[in-house]
Specification:
Layout (H helix, E strand, L loop, with lengths): L2 H4 L3 E5 L3 H12 L4 E5 L2 H11 L3 E5 L7 H9 L6 E6 L4 H8 L5 E4 L4 H16 L5 E3 L4 E4 L4 E4 L2 E3 L3 H13 L4 E2 H9 L6 H12 L8 E3 L3 E3 L2
Parallel strand pairs: 1-2, 1-3, 3-4, 4-5
Antiparallel strand pairs: 6-7, 7-8, 8-9, 10-12, 11-12
Length: 225
């Protein structure tokens, strides 16, 4: 995969000091297409659960919950998100705490281009060059769960946001069926998932996929083998 495609890396930057955060996000936006931001760890956890960023760059010392404790909570159910932790501290305590959390890197602030850019390129390579992220429906059609792109015969098929989330969940849970409750929580979130909404979403998505890719399991939900 080319470096240009690596620009699709989804990054969340977490920092409570607004000026530092805005400057960092501005820098990252010049390099990548999808940069999110959070002003504290609680907000960051909500974004991580909803948006599934590939990489989270976080400060340690923040109000409400520090960065390492946030990583520790996320790691209870998520082993794949890559974390880069930033700190102005050289305290050995933080270094020791960080060792068991599966971090990509523990870096001193401020971030420097010559350090962070190659690191993020390595993160992108790990995400986009991993065939485990690709769910094939036939020889030429697959969904890339990392970039959230549906590829058919080498061409990208446009998906609506809910279609992306729906397909990602079914691919991730394959071959087991995904329940209506899981779809409500993962795809619609706080919005109400009506019977008509799910029916229309599946109808439109089936038109973009090989025949019989999505199977309806009566009174349970949907699945992809």
């Amino acid at each position: 995969m080319s470096r240009n495609e690596y620009k699709n890396l989804k990054i969340l930057y977490v920092e409570d000091e607004e000026l530092i955060r805005k400057n960092a996000v501005s820098y990252l936006n010049r390099l990548f297409n999808n940069v999110l931001e959070a002003s504290n760890a609680i907000e960051a956890m909500q974004i991580i659960n909803k948006e599934r960023p590939h990489v989270v760059i976080t400060d340690i010392k923040m109000p409400k919950l520090n960065g390492l404790d946030m990583v520790r909570k996320i790691r209870q159910s998520d082993k794949n998100t890559q974390f880069i932790v930033l700190s102005a501290f050289t305290d050995t305590k933080y270094l020791l705490d960080a060792i068991d959390l599966g971090l990509v890197k523990y870096l001193p602030k401020p971030i420097r281009h010559e350090v962070i850019y190659p690191l993020l390129m390595s993160c992108a390579k790990l995400v986009f060059d991993n065939n485990d992220n690709k769910k094939y429906f036939n020889e030429k059609c697959y969904f890339d769960m990392a970039s959230e792109l549906l590829i058919d015969n080498g061409k990208s098929i446009k998906l609506a946001k809910n279609e992306q989330a729906f397909l990602r969940l079914l691919c991730k849970k394959s071959p087991r069926a995904v329940s209506y409750e899981e779809l409500q929580n993962f795809v619609w979130g706080e919005e109400y998932m009506s019977e008509n909404a799910i029916r229309l979403l599946v109808r439109d998505l089936r038109k973009k996929l090989p025949e019989d890719t999505i199977k309806n399991i009566s009174k349970i939900g949907y699945k992809i083998d």
